[in-house]
Design goal:
By secondary structure, the protein is α/β, with parallel strands linked by helices. The protein has 4 helices and 6 strands; from the N terminus they run αβαβαβββαβ. The protein has a 6-stranded mixed beta sheet, with helices on both faces. A hairpin with a 7-residue loop joins β3 and β4. The longest helix has 14 residues. It is globular and about 45 Å long. The two termini are 28 Å apart.
Length: 148
């Protein structure tokens, strides 16, 4: 559960940062994969920019609407992530979101606007056949929204 009032930052810790491209080049991670899940707490776009030439069928990232307390920083905006992924050859996406911890999880496809206060994940697909299968799964399992 993400609760800002529970967070207390008392110190910083330096960490080494490496791009996905450098990790692939060194052989520390595979050059291709079926799914890449990025969870960088608002810095997902920086990870995407460090991918190099991606060879992943599906990339999943997090997003926050501007009205969500984590989205107020300007990080993790859906439209920015979609624009970056489209430039990288991922033309289709599914947004799976909710409004709070107890809300029904819902979805919509290929839009860059968000439901006010929402947050969740974006599933980016390189190939339409994979996108179609994922969208059919969402249709069978999740509650659709007015964002269709």
């Amino acid at each position: 559960e993400h609760r800002m009032e529970d967070l207390r930052f008392t110190e910083t810790v330096p960490v080494q940062v490496r791009s996905l491209a450098s990790l692939r080049e060194s052989g520390e991670i595979p050059n291709n994969a079926g799914l890449l899940k990025i969870d960088a707490e608002g810095f997902d776009i920086e990870v995407i920019r460090g991918m190099g030439e991606p060879n992943y069928a599906v990339v999943m990232t997090e997003f926050w609407d501007a009205a969500h307390r984590f989205g107020q920083s300007g990080k993790g905006r859906l439209e920015d992530l979609v624009a970056e992924m489209r430039r990288r050859g991922y033309p289709w996406h599914i947004v799976i979101y909710h409004l709070d911890e107890d809300a029904t999880i819902s979805y919509y496809c290929n839009r860059t606007d968000t439901v006010s206060g929402s947050w969740g994940n974006i599933i980016f697909c390189r190939e339409h056949v994979i996108f179609s299968k994922a969208a059919r799964w969402c249709e069978q399992v999740l509650t659709p929204t007015l964002h269709r």
